[in-house]
Amino acid sequence: MMKFIKGAMIGSMATAAAMMLYKDMNKNTKNKMIKKGKQFARKVGML
């Protein structure tokens, strides 16, 4: 059960990140996306 929950969380986070990347084609927000990507990587590492 925990594996399913963990998988669902990672999947939903990845989907949200992909949607943000898709919307975010501006150069101004690229640095923000890199920061969020690093935070996301840390969160996945903690899971």
Characterise this structure.
The protein has 47 residues and is an all-alpha fold. The protein has one domain. It contains two helices and no strands. It has helices at residues 2-23, 30-46. α1 packs antiparallel against α2. It is flat.
Task: Provide the low-confidence segments as ranges.
Answer: none
Helix content: over 70%
Secondary structure tally: strands: 0
What is the first-to-last residue Cα distance? 15 Å
* Number of individual domains: 1
User: What percentage of amino acids are in beta strands?
Assistant: under 5%
Provide mean pLDDT, rounded: 75
Tally the helices: what do you get? 2
The sequence of SSEs as H and E is HH
- Broad shape: flat
The main pleated sheet reads as: none
Radius of gyration: 12 Å
Helix and strand composition category? mainly alpha
List the helices and strands and how they pair.
Layout: H1 2-23, H2 30-46
Helix pairs in contact: 1-2
Using brief descriptors, characterize the structure shown:
about 45 residues; mainly alpha; 2 helices; about 85% helix; about 0% strand
Characterize this entry briefly.
The chain has 47 residues and is mainly α.
